[in-house]
Please model this.
Amino acid sequence: MKGRASAREKIMKVNFLTEDGAVIVDGIAELGLDMDGVPADVHGGWFDTETGMAELRYTDDRSNLFTTDIDFLTGLLERYDAQRLARVEAANARLDALTYAEFRAMEYPSITELTVARWEEDVEGRSDLTAPIEVRRQEVKTAYPKDADNAALRAAYRERTGSDRFDAVPAPDPVAPALEA
Model:
């Protein structure tokens, strides 16, 4: 790697921890990576492609080493990219299979929000929480209509979340579809 910006040719902050097989690039972690090529006496470290500097932390009492010569990082980044790509593709495949009810479930108010709003309305006589929740439910239902195909549902998801990142899709709440009424 010797001070250059890697094959990606972009500025990155890279951290790694050998014990966990963890590599973190710009705050996004992949765990369980093969640490092949990392010197056995290195516990972890970081690399900044903007400065070309790295710090290696050792497993023994030696002082940390600041260096620009960390060729082993290229292999780590290749394994990181491969694992990350596989996870993103799996998440995209999962999104391709989601139904309108599952897209809705990701954005519906939580069971806790619904319970508190209902309690405050029924017991305390306050309706200031139920009206906004119903507005939110109707917005979600409009965004993800029952007759929409998956491409339209994904486009709505992308528009509503402001992101094309489908690698962290939460599991839908199994109870929420029952609240569709």
In short: The longest strand covers residues 42-48. The chain is about 40% helix and 15% strand. Residues 1-8, 167-181 have pLDDT under 50 and may be disordered.
